[in-house]
Amino acid sequence: MRTASRRSFLIASSGLAALAAVPKSWGRELGEPVRPYGERSPFEKSQRFYRKSPIPETGASGTPLQDSYGVITPSALHFESHHSGVPQIDPAKHELLVHGAVEHPLILRLEDLQRFPSVSRIHFIECAGNTSGDLASTPRPNVQRSHGLVSCSEWTGVTLKTLLEEVGLKPRAKWILAEGADACRMARSIPLDKAIDDVIVAYGQNGEALRPEQGYPIRLVVPGWEGNVCIKWLQRLHVADQPSMTREEAAGYTDLMPDGKARMFTFVMEAKSVITRPSGEQTLHGPGFYEISGLAWSGRGRIERVEVSTDGADSWQAAESQEPRLTKAFTRFRLPWNWDGKPTTLQSRCVDETGYVQPTHDELLAVRGKNATDHYNGIKVWRVLADGKVTHV
Amino acid sequence: MRTASRRSFLIASSGLAALAAVPKSWGRELGEPVRPYGERSPFEKSQRFYRKSPIPETGASGTPLQDSYGVITPSALHFESHHSGVPQIDPAKHELLVHGAVEHPLILRLEDLQRFPSVSRIHFIECAGNTSGDLASTPRPNVQRSHGLVSCSEWTGVTLKTLLEEVGLKPRAKWILAEGADACRMARSIPLDKAIDDVIVAYGQNGEALRPEQGYPIRLVVPGWEGNVCIKWLQRLHVADQPSMTREEAAGYTDLMPDGKARMFTFVMEAKSVITRPSGEQTLHGPGFYEISGLAWSGRGRIERVEVSTDGADSWQAAESQEPRLTKAFTRFRLPWNWDGKPTTLQSRCVDETGYVQPTHDELLAVRGKNATDHYNGIKVWRVLADGKVTHV
After folding, report:
1. DSSP string covering A332-359, please?
2. What sign does the CA torsion over B327, A155, A202, A303 have?
3. Which of the four pLDDT bands, split at 50, 70 and 90, describes residue A23?
4. φ, ψ for residue A249 (rounded to 5)?
5. What is the DSSP string of B205-246?
6. pTM of the model
7. Is A216's CB within 8 Å of B57's CB?
8. Residue B372 above 90 pLDDT?
9. Cross-chain residue pair B37–A48, CB shorter than 8 Å
10. A with B: how many residue pairs have Cβ under 8 Å apart?
11. Domain B272-392 has CATH 1.20.58.220
């Protein structure tokens, strides 16, 4: 499988010359005792990135994808995006109202929701505006800033289908308005077909309760669709015969096309991939073996395959995809690579199970133009310089 | 699929009577701003359990399985077990020595390991002594105390096979001694067949660096084998022609049989399942619909199926298993259940892909006796009382 021959992985490494004798401060005395709740090592400094702002209650913070492993995003590093800050909700007092075109309107508390049949599924959530920095005249310098508004968790909750069966839909039911309990009452409309397909009213994330930034105590998870539809701090589901045309769907999350018309309800996040290692602001320490690793995901289903080019798109090699490849979830890809020390570029492109191929920057702009920054999913190219530094193109 | 009819899920719930109006303190003002690293809600109190001890540096703390969702264990709640405390290791100074019957002995630092081809796989780790409390005259009152020494994470690292190919094995190589950097130099021997099958030298857990209690910066993950073999704070791999007969394998982790002989090197954790909800010390609030949910796992491969009895083992129903069912990983199972309000018992049994069936308490004791407390995997029975209280049997 691996193209590198034995003992080639570490040719360039400086750490193998001799049996070193580094003075260590541990292992001579008893360590820390057992404890009720763990924290990461004080040596680990990875954190979400956000721009300083006079109103930090509306904004986003990005996941440090350059430090990511596998397909699960640690909840503490899951990207955030909110429009009026994170409400501090007491779950015992929080209520979810389900009403409108239903036979039996309900108010549900968390403990009620936890009585329903449950599901757990691994899905990514991605901000509609993720990767929009690649349209800027100065692209973002690293993968956290260019692609960090996407993360992937194991979500647990009740399917919206189960909940809608419980309240009983009236014949005119066609759209569901979901509303959050944050100060701006963030709200989006979801068509019924999607609502009963795979949407989850989630209370669990990565094995424990949702984190506050992720909608504690309950949120919608709308697999494969733009993150703003996955309403956090969910307090109301209103069933109606049409979309509610909220601010966020009539103006906010629309895409202005070159002809002056705007695309609305562009829910699906199309197939995207990015190399996370090596990536911008990282450094290769001399020629030799490196593993190229990255993430791919598609709002339309499973990732079928990922290809990587290390020679300016002259040739493409099939990367190995981590199994199992789950629908609407991160797929980790990996490719062994021997760097010859010369300047080059690295890029990945993915194909999803529908056959959709991730477009190049130019292909995408030819269709969409530059008016709309949301839903950009062009191929990301990293440049490797002769000194090993990796930069944006 | 679900046996419960529409609107039956919440018949017994008290929260649905009318449109309530609970005063809330949130949603009127801007919430918390974006932040670099998330914490759980202050309303969440779930924590690992451990007995107070004059030497808390040797001991174990159990995962609160009663609060678990899905199959991923949050790293902060992953069970701990250590013999001389958790060393605080500076990863820049930590070294892994690979030597013995090898062609090219090596010292590797974390940054060297991260140059190798990597894998990420979801696996459980279970303490050999997990569930031993079910042999006590007074069984543990809840699932955290009876079964909490098992957890499941997505682990990332280099396969031990890759590492051994790098150093080159000499013909006499048959066993690998793994040694930790903790004060007791915890050490176990692993046969070569297993070492090159699926063992991982891991540096990542659930998308980020290992947690200190889980062996930061590197540990062994030996899929399906007792946790003490998964050496944490790994600092040495010594290749030899036989096991080293360390204290932990010559005395510590052996199983005394009824005939006075001891089983040694009983590595594999056999198939086990337990209902986590409802479970001991939880309460059912009146007759009606409940989802029975639990976890199953096997050190020999995938869980084939899980069956649940709600009537004292007179009949068994097939539970639904969460997909994908991964090898040597947690499988979450779920079964819809309408409680008629009468006292009963709840129990689960699992079958793994080899056809191995989880035994009853009595079946297991007939073979193994009570001398050995490790590797107990009998069926766990919870009693439901008329007032809804759930207790151990």
Report:
1. EEEEEEEE-SS-EEEEEEEEETT--BPP
2. negative
3. confident
4. -115, -20
5. ETTEEPPGGGTTT-EEE-TTBBGGGS-SSEEEEEEESS----
6. 0.96
7. no
8. no
9. yes
10. 381
11. no
Domain A80-263 is in which class? Answer: alpha beta
Of B5, B189, B212, B202, give the one whose Cα is nearest residue B90.
Answer: B212
The SS3 call for residue B147 is helix
**Secondary structure tally for chain A: helices H, strands E:** 6, 23
Beta-bridge partners for B179: B187, B236
pLDDT category, B39, cuts 50, 70, 90?
A: very high
The answer to whether B150 touches B297, Cβ cutoff 8 Å, is yes
Query: Which of A3, A28, A58, A72 is the best substitution to test chain B (most B C-beta atoms within 10 A)?
Result: A72
Q: Which residues of A touch B198 (CB under 8 A)?
A: none
**pLDDT at position B20:** 54
Domain with CATH 3.90.420.10 in chain A: 80-263
Q: Determine, for residues A13 and B115 on separate chains, whether the beta-carbon distance falls below 8 Å.
A: yes
CATH fold group of domain B81-263: Sulfite Oxidase; Chain A, domain 2 (3.90.420)
CATH 2.60.40.650 residue window(s) in chain B: 272-392
Predicted confidence at residue B17, as pLDDT, reads 47
Which residue from A6, A183, A213 is facing B38, i.e. has the nearest CB?
A: A213
Residue A258: partners with Cβ closer than 8 Å, 6 or more residues away: A368, A369, A371
Chain B residue with CA closest to A158: the answer is B291
Residue with tokens 């190995």: A320
Distance from C-alpha of A144 to C-alpha of A48, rounded to nearest angstrom: 8
**Residue A299 bridge partners (DSSP):** none
A297, A303 Cβ separation under 8 angstroms: yes
What ipTM does this complex have?
Answer: 0.95
Q: pLDDT per residue over B325-353, tens digit each? A: 999 999 999 999 999 999 999 999 999 99
Distance from CA of B298 to the nearest CA of A (A): 19
- Burial state string for A250-266 with b = 16 or more CB within 10 A and e = fewer than 16: eeebbbbeeeeeeeebb
* 8 Å CB contact of B15 and A108: yes
Q: Please say whether the beta carbons of A37 and B75 come within 8 A.
A: no
**Residue among A117, A33, A44 nearest B208 (CA):** A44
Higher pLDDT, A137 or A39: A39
Radius of gyration over alpha carbons of chain B, in Å? Answer: 23
Cβ burial, residue A94 (10 Å; 0-12/13-18/19+): buried
CA distances from A251 to A225, A231, A246, A255 (A): 18, 17, 8, 9
Q: How far A52 CA lies from chain B's nearest CA (Å)?
A: 10
Residue of B nearest to A34 (CA): B56
The partner residue sitting opposite B34, judged by closest CB among A60, A155, A206, is: A60
C-alpha to C-alpha distance for B283 and B67, rounded to whole angstroms: 14
Position B1 pLDDT exceeds 60 = no
